[in-house]
């Protein structure tokens, strides 16, 4: 069994708080509701609408009605609308951040920072040039490529960074001339619904619609005949179901799914700098980042020194409720994920030869807290190494031959990201380019700029978000040929 600290459960108290949904320019109350749990206590603290099929149909119909006029709106005006949305995010960042901390668990400064970064991301995305391309003008015929909006986009977002991931989809859909119906995770609906209330008067009615609910709502969206594209961020298992559901109506699909990102550390590395970067890129958001480092491969010559340096930095992390200024890491977001990570730690404790170097204590009874951990002595087929943990546990493996390290890094069904850490940047680049992943870095991990397309190989996704390539996935390419008089 894992080390466990039992805490008394606080009294149950569910205030009747219900954020309305943005449908056709109006804030609409729910007819049914879902409880929203504060992961720092493990108890419900608010209610959010559980949209009915009729409410979803109203949102889709509104988006469909708004589409022709919005698609015909000059791109400069669409850009300006997105910029006004970004300004509202900054204006309400403190209030939205407080809701985000309450429902997601991350420290308040990080939640407010996420809201402000969402505004930055939106502005960066609408600065991209997505104009068409002239292919030929030979005096006889002029041929060019233009990009037509698809229609109504269905966006589905997860619970780990809900504000940023929602607003990236909003920016891409609106800038390319589409309208949008977006569903946040039922674990973290409130901050997204709050954004909807903040922007209701700066977006034409029907252009943006936010609806909340559970799994049924997601299935209704992916199968809806009047939705032309699905942009989904979430798990591999759910992504597979999204693709299957969308196939019936030939929807365009972008899937940004899970990852099991490797970090390969070469023997010449700057140990302190690499330890700092690897720990930060592993335990950001309590390890709940799709492209966080999930596996670390150390050369045997630096094994002990690197583990000692990383362990020192991990011990400096302070877990606690997000509204406590002393906390630098909040809880795991939901009970299901908490139990999964706790089970992985239990498995480590029952594995001969495995060692938890630091952390790993499970706090029960007062929220979903697990002390960030470094684990050694596992084989590559151990669940913690093979699967995506999505929590604050770092498995560390050792290699002697770089070819072995590359092969082991690639021996996974995932392919979202990977990194190489070394003083020799040229050597790092050569190794990084051999990692089978959609994004690779040298001497850092996480954090692509918005002009860089993001997505995964293998089971980690289908298509790209962001950058010009991701933006154009919200459009249909059209070749236009006209004779020259």
TrEMBL record:
Domain of life: Bacteria
Catalytic residues (UniProt): 256
Aldehyde dehydrogenase domain mapped to chain residues: 32-480
Pfam family, one: Aldedh
Cited SUPFAM superfamilies: ALDH-like
Keyword terms of this UniProt record: Oxidoreductase
Species assigned in the record: Sphingomonas canadensis
Name of this chain's protein: Aldehyde dehydrogenase family protein
Protein family (similarity comment): Belongs to the aldehyde dehydrogenase family.
């Amino acid at each position: 069994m894992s080390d466990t600290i039992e805490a008394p459960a606080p009294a149950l108290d569910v205030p009747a708080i219900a954020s309305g949904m943005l449908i056709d320019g109006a804030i609409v109350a729910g007819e049914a509701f879902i409880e929203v749990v504060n992961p720092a206590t493990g108890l419900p603290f608010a209610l959010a609408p559980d949209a009915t099929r009729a409410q979803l149909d109203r949102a889709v119909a509104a988006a469909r009605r708004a589409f022709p006029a919005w698609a015909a709106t000059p791109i400069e005006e669409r850009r300006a609308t997105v910029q006004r949305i970004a300004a509202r995010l900054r204006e309400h960042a403190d209030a939205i951040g407080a809701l985000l901390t309450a429902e997601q668990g991350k420290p308040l400064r990080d939640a407010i920072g996420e809201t402000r970064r969402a505004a930055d991301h939106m502005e960066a995305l609408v600065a991209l040039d997505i104009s068409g391309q002239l292919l030929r003008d030979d005096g006889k015929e002029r041929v060019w490529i233009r990009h037509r909006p698809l229609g109504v986009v269905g966006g589905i977002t997860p619970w780990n960074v809900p504000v940023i991931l929602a607003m990236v989809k909003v920016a891409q859909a609106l800038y390319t001339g589409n309208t949008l119906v977006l569903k946040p995770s039922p674990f973290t609906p409130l901050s997204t619904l709050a954004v909807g209330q903040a922007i209701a008067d700066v977006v034409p009615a029907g252009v943006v619609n936010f609806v909340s609910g559970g799994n049924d709502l997601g299935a209704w969206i992916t199968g809806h005949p009047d939705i032309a594209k699905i942009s989904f961020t979430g798990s591999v298992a759910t992504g597979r179901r999204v693709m299957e559901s969308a196939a019936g109506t030939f929807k365009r699909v972008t899937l940004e799914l899970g990852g099991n990102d490797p970090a390969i550390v070469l023997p010449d590395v700057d140990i302190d700098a690499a330890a700092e970067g690897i720990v930060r890129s592993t335990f950001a958001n309590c390890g709940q980042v799709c492209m966080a480092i999930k596996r670390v491969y150390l050369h045997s010559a630096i094994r002990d020194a690197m583990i000692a340096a990383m362990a020192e930095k991990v011990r400096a992390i302070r877990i606690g409720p997000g509204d406590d200024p002393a906390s630098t890491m909040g809880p795991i977001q939901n009970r299901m994920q908490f139990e999964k990570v706790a089970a992985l730690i239990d498995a480590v404790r029952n594995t001969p030869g495995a060692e938890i170097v630091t952390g790993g204590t499970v706090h029960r009874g007062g929220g979903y807290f697990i002390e960030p951990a470094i684990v050694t002595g596992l084989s590559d087929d151990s669940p913690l190494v093979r699967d995506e943990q999505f929590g604050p546990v770092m498995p560390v493996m050792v290699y002697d031959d770089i070819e072995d390290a590359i092969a082991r890094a690639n021996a996974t069904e995932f392919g979202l990201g990977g990194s190489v850490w070394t003083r020799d940047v040229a050597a790092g680049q050569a190794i990084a380019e051999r990692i089978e992943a959609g994004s690779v870095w040298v001497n850092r991990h996480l954090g692509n700029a918005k002009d860089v397309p993001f997505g995964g190989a293998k089971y980690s996704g289908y298509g790209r978000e962001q950058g010009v390539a991701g933006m154009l996935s919200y459009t249909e390419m059209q070749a236009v040929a006209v004779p020259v008089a």
